[in-house]
Amino acid sequence: MKKAVLVICAVLLLVPGFMAFGGGQQEGADSGVMRVAISLPPANNAWQAKMLDEILAVTATDLEEFSFIVKSAVDDADQLNMLQTFKSDNYDMIICLPGNGTLMTPICEEIYESGTKLMIIDRAIASDKYTVFYAGDNYACGSNAARYLGDRLGGKGDIAILRSYVGIPIDLLRYNGFVDVLKKEYPGINIVVEGDGEFNQEAGLKAMSNILPAYEKIDAVYCQDDEAAVGALTAIENAGRDDVQFVTGFGGSRTAYKMMTEKNPLYGASMSYFPVIGADAVVLAKEILRGASFEKDNIAPTFVVDQDNVAEYLNHAY
C-alpha cells in the first residue's frame, strides 16, 4: 500500500502545474506574490514521503503572499535538470534538499551566485555558497550513536557500520561524528567492516547479508538510517546469528519505533530528528522573504530514542 501511495504522489507531482500554488507561476510574477521553488529528492522512503507531506501542508498557506512550486526528482540527474530550470526562471527563493549534496554543489553555487536566495535543507552541499541552511545535527547524531553503542558494549567489541551513500556530505557527517567519538572515548571498539545501507530496507538487507558470512563475530551494527537498520535486522534474523547484540538506527521511522515499543531486544536506539524540519524550513523561508533577520546555519535538535523513551516520540515518527 505504501508503495502505491508513493507512486500516486510521484505521478501527481509530474503533472504540469500541479504543485504551483497561488495561481501558478505567471500569476505570482504579475501580482507581486513572492515565488518560491522547492526541489526535493525522490520520495522513495518513509522519511522523504513524510517530509513531502509536511512541506505541502505549509506551502498551502499564506497564498496571498507566496506562490510555491514543489517537485520531487526522479533521480539525481532529474534534480540537476530541475535546479537548472529553476535557476533560469527568476524565483525569489529556491529551496533544495539535495539527493546527493556533492553532485548538486555546482548548480547550487550557480543559483547563489546569480543573486537568487538559496536555502539548503537537511543534506549539506560541499560549499558555503548558500543563503541559509536548515538541518538536523547529523554530526551530533553520529556522536550520540557512538556513545550509546560504546556504553552498551562496555567499551569493547567488534562492530559493523552501514553508511548512507558513502561519501556524500550527509554520510560524512553521520560517519565522522561516530568515528571521532569512538576513537577518542572508546578505543576498545573496533570497526571491522563497513557497507552501504543507503536509506532503505532493501539496501540494508543486501549489505548486511553480504557482510555476515565473512565475519564470525559482530557485536553491534551502527546504521545511518532506520530503514537500513530494519533491513539489517532482517538479514541477521535470516542468518540465525546470535552474536549481534543490537543495531542502532537513524531518523525516527514508525517501523523502528514499533520494534522499540514492542521491546525487540535487537533494536537498540534511533538517533532521531524528524521530517517536520522540512515544514520548519519553509516557515523560516517565508520569514526571510518578508525581511526578517536570520542565522545562516540553523540546526534542529536531535534525540536518542530508545525503548525507555520511545513513547514520548511516537507522534513524530514517519
Give a verbal description of the structure.
This protein has 318 residues and is an alpha/beta fold. The chain folds into two domains: 2-135 and 275-300, Response regulator (Rossmann fold, 3-Layer(aba) Sandwich), CATH 3.40.50; 138-272, Rossmann fold (3-Layer(aba) Sandwich). The protein is built from eleven helices and twelve strands. The strands form two sheets. It has a six-stranded parallel β-sheet, with helices on both faces. It has a six-stranded mixed β-sheet with strand order 7-6-8-9-10-12, with helices on both faces. α3 (46-59) runs parallel beside α11 and α6 (138-152) runs parallel beside α7. The chain is elongated and about 65 Å long.
Considering the chains and any ligands shown, give keywords for the structure.
318 residues, alpha/beta, Rossmann fold, 2 domains, six-stranded parallel sheet, six-stranded mixed sheet, 12 strands, 21% strand, elongated
Succession of helices and strands: HHEHEHEHEEHEHEHEHEHEHEE
CATH top level label of the largest domain: Alpha Beta
| Uncertain segments | 1-29
Number of domains: 2
Annotated CATH homologous superfamily of the largest domain: Response regulator
Oligomeric state of shown chains: single chain
Show the helix and strand layout.
Blueprint (H helix, E strand, L loop, with lengths): L1 H13 L10 H7 L2 E7 L5 H14 L6 E7 L3 H12 L5 E4 L4 H13 L3 E5 L10 E5 L1 H15 L4 E7 L5 H17 L3 E8 L4 H11 L8 E4 L2 H13 L7 E6 L2 H8 L5 E6 L4 H13 L7 E4 L2 E4 L12
Parallel strand pairs: 1-2, 1-3, 3-4, 4-5, 5-11, 6-7, 6-8, 8-9, 9-10
Antiparallel strand pairs: 10-12
